[in-house]
Every structure is written in C-alpha cells, then in structure tokens.
Specification:
The chain is α/β, with parallel strands linked by helices and 487 residues long. Helix content is 34%, strand content 19%. The chain folds into 2 domains: 356 residues, FAD/NAD(P)-binding domain (3-Layer(bba) Sandwich); 114 residues, Succinate dehydrogenase/fumarate reductase flavoprotein, catalytic domain (Flavocytochrome C3, Chain A, domain 1), CATH 3.90.700.10. The protein has 13 helices and 18 strands. A hairpin with a 4-residue loop joins strand 8 and strand 9. The chain is globular, with a radius of gyration of 23 Å. The protein binds flavin-adenine dinucleotide.
Amino acid sequence: MKIRHTDVLVIGGGLAGLRCAVGARRRGLDVRILSLVPAKRSHSVAAQGGMQASLANAIKGAGDNEDVHFEDTVRGSDWGCDQLVARMFTHMAPKAVRELAAWGVPWNRVRKGDHEAVINGQRVTLTERDEAHGLITARDFGGTRKWRTCYTSDGTGHAMLYALGDRAVAESIPVDERVEAIALIHDGGRCQGAVVRDLITGELTAWMAEATVMATGGHGRIYGVSTNALINEGMGAALALETGVARLANMEAVQFHPTAIVPAGILVTEGCRGDGGLLRDVDGHRFMPDYEPEKAELASRDVVSRRMAEHIRRGKGVPGDATKPEHLWLDITGLGAAHIDKNLREVKDICQYFLGIDPAKDWIPVRPTQHYSMGGIRTNHRGESPWLRGLFACGEAACWDLHGFNRLGGNSVAETVVAGMLVGEYVADYVEQEGGRLSMSPGLAREALAREEARIGAILARPGHEDAQAIRRSMEDIMTRQVGLFR
Ligand SMILES: Cc1cc2nc3c(=O)[nH]c(=O)nc-3n(C[C@H](O)[C@H](O)[C@H](O)COP(=O)(O)OP(=O)(O)OC[C@H]3O[C@@H](n4cnc5c(N)ncnc54)[C@H](O)[C@@H]3O)c2cc1C
C-alpha cells in the first residue's frame, strides 16, 4: 500500500486550484496538485468572454468601482448571495487582474482613438479618454451597469490558465496529472487527504495532507446537453457528500446560458451580445427589448434564458427537426468581419467547424443550455467546510455563496483567481496554526485504501447486467426535462 504525505493537497488543476496552490506554496508549504487531465487542459481553458474587475479604464467603464461591482453582483444573484463574500470578491478582483497581467496574461488594452463600439445594435463613436491608452480595457457583459469585463479577445480562460500553469511551474509545485481522487480520508471531524487512483495504471495511493482543497470544477455533465467539458461530472461534490460530514449547498441553483449553438451545445460567449449582437426570432424580429426594455439582450443570464424559453413557447422559435431542436437566432453580422476576426475569433471558428456558417454573414442558431453550477461544497468565507476541519474548497466546485441564484458572466473566472488567492492564504494560516498539533494517522489512510480497493473489486465482480451508460443517459434526461430553466 502506498502512503504519501504533503502539507497541502489541491485536488484540481484549473484556475482555482492553481492560484490556491501558488498562494500556499509562497507561504513555504509543500503543495501538490492532482488533476484528471494536464492542468492546462482543465475546463477553465474554455472560458471565452472575460473576467470582471472594476478597473474603470474603458470609456463606458468610467465611474466604475468596487461598490458598483458589488451592487451588480448582489442584484445579479437575485439577492441570494453572501454579501460578505461579494465584498471580499469585488475588492480583490482588480488586484487579481493586475497580478495576472504581471504573470503574462495579454489583456486587451485601450488604444488611442480606438473608440468605436456597437451599443444596442448601433455603431457609435466614443470621443473621450484617450489618456487611458495602454491600460487594460473591458467589454460589456450582461447584468452590469459598467463595461467591466476584462478580456483577451475571446480566449480569456486560455490566456489565464496558461499564465497560471506557468506560474505553478515557476513556483516548483508538482502537478500529478491523469489521476483521480476517489475518496476523502477523514475521521469524522478532520480531513486528512484523499485516496487517489492512477488513471493509467489503476494503482491506488493514499495522499495524506494537513489541508485538502477541492478545486474540482462544476457538475454540468449531469445534464444531457451542457457547455461544460466531459470531465465536469461533479466528482468533487460527490466526494465531499460521501464523507457524510461535509455538506453541499444551493445545488438547485443551476445556470443556463442563453447562447449555446444548436445542436452541439457549444457556447458562444456573452461577449457576442456585449459587443452588440442581437437575439432574433423565427420572423427575424429582435424580441428582447419587448420583454426587457432597459437591458434587452444584456439583462442577466437567467432573465435572458427564461425570456427566450418563454418566446419559444409562444410559438416564435425556429422549428426544429430530427437533427436540431427548436431554437432562436443570435445575429452578430452587424459587428462586421474585422471586429469578429479580432475580438470573437473563437466564435468564428466554432461557427465554421460545428455549423459550417460564417457569423459575419449568417445568423447563429442558439438555445439556452446548462452552463454553470452555483451550488457546490459548502464553505465559510475562508473557504473551509464548517463541518470537516482541514477540508477547503474554491472555484466552481465550492459554494461560499458568491453567486446566489444566478452568476453574472465574467464573475466566475474572476472568482476562481480571487478565491484561489484568498483561500490559499487561509489554508496556509490553518496549517501554520494547527499543523504542528495535527497528528496524521497512517492507520486511517490504510483503512481508506483497503475500503476503496474492496469497493472497486466488488464493482468488478458484480454479476448484474445493468448498463451504466443507459442509467446515466436516463439521469441526464431527467435533469434536462425536470430540473431546468424554471424553478
Ligand atoms: C464554454 C465556457 C465558457 C466560459 N466562459 C466564461 C467567461 O468568459 N467568464 C467567466 O467568468 N466564466 C466563464 N465560464 C465559467 C468558468 O470557465 C468556470 O467556472 C471556471 O473556469 C472553473 O474553474 P475551476 O478552476 O473551478 O474548475 P476547472 O477549470 O473545471 O478545473 C477543475 C479541475 O479539477 C480536476 N478534477 C476534477 N475532478 C477531479 C478528481 N476527482 N480528481 C482529480 N482531479 C479532478 C480537473 O482535472 C481540473 O483540473 C465559462 C464556462 C464554459 C463552460
């Protein structure tokens, strides 16, 4: 039996796990990251549109500050978030964006005279603030009163994840990839690490740790159609729940994104609408202003998604067929080919590869689709489980309750790095204060290993003929039909 030790075990190599690991490492601790896939292939890489931070450099961001960001976040959450957490978050987001710039993220910048924009479908020229030239700029996103979403074209997650992946290497943090945590080791009161399976050899290892951080991402793949990567199955939440001690929270709060392409379910970013894209129905009518006169396409995501479903129910959807469900249109043709080539190039690629269309000329078929998990492993504002000491969580896997019932676009990648930054420090505090007094229990690790070996053996030896894939498809179908857009 293999038992290994580290101070901090971070399960998950996406944005949240990497940033948390860097924080704890910088406090002098031994840190190890585990990931199902190479860290730079974590789902964070798919984030397109951007990261919210109230820098107030863009012309339409003038007057922005952390109070305005806080108010938008609280309102956007349907007044359901934890306001202490929202305060901490909006206060730290500008620092996080600048830190990432220093670590190599090539944020789009304000350019002198580059003041053309499409607002509410109309191309306008903005004339002030040439002095902001060279500063990090921002685009418009749903549910925000200011242009606050910092971006690198529509490959923001890619740029952020690569910068943080490189940072982890620079800090000499080992990343074990193609391994899967399959159980937490705990004594009912304190978490002491995890049992981990090597996905290539099948070998089990007990990783014992003073602090264990779950940064395992969301659980979108419990739905049949989702914008999430195939690995986003909610494994972290399941492991926490299976302890019988740690708890989950807000699991009913699931976000549906208005614009996933039909039928593949691949996301095209909210940046499309932020930059001026419009939603149209079967008649080519732009319907969102009829429902939401003030923000139209840029009302918050839950609102736009529900309005789209409502409009389809009124018979205004584009009829589907055997290959395609009923849908609506996203029209970004007004932005022009040059803008799309520069700022929405991944969207262009997705449209070409998966639909065979050119979004500069053709409307994109879209429909609301499962996108984000607001719920997750319940923690306090320090990212620690109130029920299982030494168990921390951050990023999409966690519910420290920043998003309440609806997350604002751009607030998630911002959350991953801010939470990583803060929770990394709290984890280090915990290990420094409690570490010397914690006695690791190798007996506990041996028991956990034996239990997991027996469990896997029992599964392999089962004589039944049930088809796991069929059961899974049935679950996905139930979730899609019955746990959907309307609560
Ligand atoms: C298509 C798309 C576009 C998006 N665009 C934006 C955007 O523009 N702005 C924004 O704010 N948000 C966006 N989001 C949301 C945002 O990208 C995610 O919420 C965020 O990146 C999640 O980061 P994370 O670090 O919490 O998890 P992830 O990046 O999902 O990382 C999870 C990690 O956990 C590991 N893991 C999971 N289970 C195990 C296990 N059992 N054992 C070991 N390792 C495990 C995985 O290997 C992975 O390394 C988008 C989401 C999607 C789907």
